[in-house]
Amino acid sequence: GAGVSQSPRYKVAKRGQDVALRCDPISGHVSLFWYQQALGQGPEFLTYFQNEAQLDKSGLPSDRFFAERPEGSVSTLKIQRTQQEDSAVYLCASSLWGQGKQPQHFGDGTRLSIL
Amino acid sequence: AQTVTQSQPEMSVQEAETVTLSCTYDTSENNYYLFWYKQPPSRQMILVIRQEAYKQQNATENRFSVNFQKAAKSFSLKISDSQLGDTAMYFCAFISTSGTYKYIFGTGTRLKVLA
Hints:
The structure holds 2 protein chains of 2 kinds.
Chain A: E1 5-7, E2 10-13, E3 19-24, E4 31-37, E5 44-50, E6 53-56, E7 65-68, E8 75-79, E9 88-95, E10 105-106, E11 110-114
Parallel strand pairs in A: 2-11
Antiparallel strand pairs in A: 1-3, 3-8, 4-5, 4-9, 5-6, 7-8, 9-10, 9-11
Chain B: E1 3-5, E2 10-14, E3 19-21, E4 24-26, E5 32-39, E6 46-52, E7 60-61, E8 64-69, E9 74-79, E10 88-96, E11 104-105, E12 109-114
Parallel strand pairs in B: 2-12
Antiparallel strand pairs in B: 1-4, 3-9, 5-6, 5-10, 7-8, 8-9, 10-11, 10-12
């Protein structure tokens, strides 16, 4: 596609429910990143994929967070047993090779609200 | 660990005037990349300008330019001839050339351009 696509745009869930957020990167982009953006803050890194390999998951806040990219294109971020502190905007970004020089292209994000 | 600081939570500027947004960072590395991103209410992060640390020349993109002071670890953004469409959150971001190439963002500056 022309840009990074994320769905859903908004998600409301009750505390304790599981949620799944989808990211469709720019076609051909090898690197994919997930970020969490709390209200009024800058995005914070969650995890990084190079093709289907998850090379860095150091930013995942707990073992309730799980991400996958099984075929090296679409990625899913799953949050189990959601809690109120999980409420945030989740941004996905992709880049051609992820070598720093090439900028990351961001999607519109998914705003997750936990009631 | 690298950190990025944006000390101006909010700024305003009259249309057609010039405004400068500040950013400082901390790193022990010699080679890295710095970025400014714009995030309008639509939430999509849009690349404004990019600077490579090994280049002494300040980057320029149309009305946007940076003042990169490597020794001082300062990376400010100057917007000339401000337009109403420049109203947005502006984030400064740092990428190391080693490791995951994840962005480290500042907390952002909310810029309002006044008619």
